[in-house]
Amino acid sequence: MAETTTVCIAGGGPAGAVLGLLLARSGVDVVVLEKHADFHRDFRGDTVHPATLQILDELGLVDRFHELPHQKVSTIGVVQDGKRINIADFRRLKVRYPYMAFVPQWDFLDLITAEAKRYPGFRLLMKTEALGVVRENGRVAGLRVRGPEGEREIRSTLVVAADGRHSVIRADAGFTPTLIGRSLDVIFFRISRRDTDPDEGICVRIGNGKIFGATDRRTYWQMSYETSTGGMDKVLREGLDKFRADLAELVPFLADRVHEVSSLDQLSPLEARIDRLERWHEPGLLFIGDAAHAMSPVAGFGVNLAVQDAVATANILTESLLRAQDGAPFDDSLLARIRKRRKRAVALSQGLQRATQKFGIDEALDGSGQPPAPKIFEKLGVAQWLMSRVIGLGFRPEHVRTPEKTPEGTTP
Ligand SMILES: Cc1cc2nc3c(=O)[nH]c(=O)nc-3n(C[C@H](O)[C@H](O)[C@H](O)COP(=O)(O)OP(=O)(O)OC[C@H]3O[C@@H](n4cnc5c(N)ncnc54)[C@H](O)[C@@H]3O)c2cc1C
């Protein structure tokens, strides 16, 4: 017999995990599938924005979140010609949490899923990969999955594909995203951190046609080297010494440690793309997060948007899902409301990512001059305020409107 649940979510990233928690918290039966054995991957967005902190507050999780080892970063800066220019300063926002918290994403996802497990309707299946949709009577009726015990079907009232920018469910169901922006290659590597290093939080360093980003992970720096698409080939051609020399020049406090990059094999390139679906649903199936709209790393919008999609989805669908659990038909027409609510925020965020790429990143990579964009933030106070608001809160902040059905069965 096929396993059954009310909602089957493919993907335990920020979108899938937060949606799983919200639904289970309201008494909806939910299964979250995650193909990896844990959440421990290096190259995930680690930025928890003021709007996401507000959501954690609404869920009663903000104190536990702050108990995780984290860093609070009030400003985002660009260092150009040795001078730092703040392009965003969250202290200018009238919000309860005027900072971005840096937490390894695996800690964030562990917190969310641990909280979700308090609710009896929540199941997280690790090492379980969604393979494709099951269709029945003209609607999606579940997923084919492969777990440690082999292949099987999980039947559900609703399938949510939150399986990221390379979504296999999207491909299997016949949905094709439109490419919105040119791609960027981001090459990741690590360098050890010393107590005497500057307290950078997050800082991007630009010069000589290169961009290096440094994220403080307490014992090491998670470094990124941004290049245009195909940039890794150039790095391989130019060789290790050139890479180390560029790094030492742009990030001088790491000059004594560049030898820690002992081989080009230590560099992990990742392609970032901006795309989106024109339709996010069909009967029985919904796409959210990067599966619906892949985000590039620029401005760290992706995690925040994925969480906001999850909150909007729970707000719109929970009642109908609870009724469906009691035997009523699920109202598939509600699915269109999720894209309708989120599409403007997505389009504006992606537009800003493209503009930043065009007027900041591309000009910086071109190397022929200095990108003018950072200087605008130095001269125009309102530009910095706007950027703080847009990065910190997004274009359409969502709030948790769903009730909690406590594990004991009462609704406080
Ligand atoms: C190089 C790079 C750096 C980035 N840095 C940042 C940043 O600093 N800050 C920021 O906010 N955003 C950043 N982003 C964007 C951000 O990572 C995404 O927008 C965000 O993670 C989207 O969340 P999600 O839950 O939709 O998808 P994902 O985070 O991609 O999560 C999808 C999950 O589904 C799982 N999965 C995939 N396929 C299957 C399957 N078939 N079955 C089961 N599970 C599956 C994956 O293992 C993963 O856990 C970055 C993106 C890139 C490419």
TrEMBL record:
Keywords assigned by UniProt, alphabetized: Oxidoreductase
Domain named FAD-binding: residues: 5-322
Stored Gene3D superfamilies: FAD/NAD(P)-binding domain
GO molecular function: FAD binding; oxidoreductase activity
Source species, domain of life: Bacteria
Keyword Calcium part of the UniProt annotation: no
Signal peptide stretch: none
PANTHER family (UniProt xref): 3-(3-HYDROXY-PHENYL)PROPIONATE/3-HYDROXYCINNAMIC ACID HYDROXYLASE (PTHR43476), FAD-DEPENDENT MONOOXYGENASE (PTHR43476:SF5)
Protein name, as recorded: FAD-binding domain-containing protein
Organism (species): Lentzea guizhouensis
Taxon lineage: Bacteria, Bacillati, Actinomycetota, Actinomycetes, Pseudonocardiales
